[in-house]
From TrEMBL:
Protein name listed in UniProt: DUF2007 domain-containing protein
Residues of the DUF2007 domain: 1-65
Organism of origin: Rhodopseudomonas palustris (strain DX-1)
SUPFAM superfamilies to which the protein is assigned, alphabetical: GlnB-like
Length: 75
């Protein structure tokens, strides 16, 4: 699994999750519970991961959706 993006924006995570679901790309959101525990300070961002083999397709999908600025540069 490789990190596709990191954010505190729950709406963005939901939208990206829907895009990935629509494209048939599995994904996993990490740190969701830790982020809730720390409150709304935004100290612990949530990480969205996709399988290694799907990373190029997922990056293309988000770029096509106008979300390239949200992608991890090291992904």
């Amino acid at each position: 699994m490789r990190e596709l993006l990191r954010t505190n924006d729950a709406v963005l995570l939901s939208a990206v999750g829907a895009l990935l679901d629509g494209a048939g790309i599995d994904h996993l959101v990490l740190d969701q519970n830790m982020s809730i525990l720390e409150g709304s300070l935004g100290v612990i961002p949530r990480r969205l991961l996709v399988p290694d083999d799907d990373l190029p397709a997922a990056r293309r999908l988000l770029t096509d959706a106008g979300l390239a600025h949200e992608l991890r540069s090291d992904g």
